[in-house]
Amino acid sequence: MRILVAEDDELLRALLEDYLSELGHTVKSSGNGVALVQLALAERPDLIVTDLKMPEIAGDSMIAMLDMSPGLSGIPVIILSGVSGAELAGMGIPREIPVLSKPYDFAKIARAVGMVSQRKGQL
């Protein structure tokens, strides 16, 4: 799958890129939501993996922008974030979007990506 990663922490972004690449995916990344939306318009990814708290535009706003963009709405999203459950509830994140907590559990990330891959294969 073609996966875009949005993570403002350079080390975490590199770890995610390397891990997802090792799983056989093509991965590109960005350090903020604005750049990721631009990258998504150019790349038309199969999946977006994003943090919520980033510079320029937060992940929840980025997800809303994607949903309003022709050709980008409907791209599956996985959220990786340190945001607490109470704060997350107030952000209006759709229930169908998986939210995985930091620190990263790479086995959970692999399972979430695998589920998206299986669903895409059924379309």
Brief digest:
This protein is of the alpha/beta class and 123 residues long.
Structure commentary:
- This protein has helices spanning 10-22, 33-43, 59-68, 85-89, 106-122, and strands at residues 2-6, 26-30, 47-50, 77-81, 99-101.
- The chain has 123 residues and is α/β, with parallel strands linked by helices.
- It has one domain (2-122): Rossmann fold.
- Helix 2 packs parallel to helix 3 (59-68).
- The two termini are 14 Å apart.
- The model has no long low-confidence stretch (mean pLDDT 87).
Element layout with pairings:
Elements: E1 2-6, H1 10-22, E2 26-30, H2 33-43, E3 47-50, H3 59-68, E4 77-81, H4 85-89, E5 99-101, H5 106-122
Parallel strand pairs: 1-2, 1-3, 3-4, 4-5
| Helix count, DSSP H or I runs of 4 or more residues | 5
Give the second-level CATH assignment, the architecture: 3-Layer(aba) Sandwich
Question: CATH homologous superfamily name?
Answer: Response regulator
* Helical/strand content category: alpha/beta
Shape: globular
- Per CATH, what is the topology? Rossmann fold
Oligomer: single chain
Q: What is the number of beta strands?
A: 5
Number of domains: 1
Task: Note the run of SSEs as H and E.
Answer: EHEHEHEHEH
Helix content: 40-55%
Poorly predicted residue ranges: none
Main sheet record = 5 strands, parallel
User: Could you tell me the strand content as a percent range?
Assistant: 15-25%
Query: Taking Cα atoms only, what radius of gyration do you get, to the nearest Å?
Result: 13 Å
Strand order, biggest sheet? 2-1-3-4-5
* Average residue pLDDT: 87
Termini gap = 14 Å
Broad CATH class: Alpha Beta
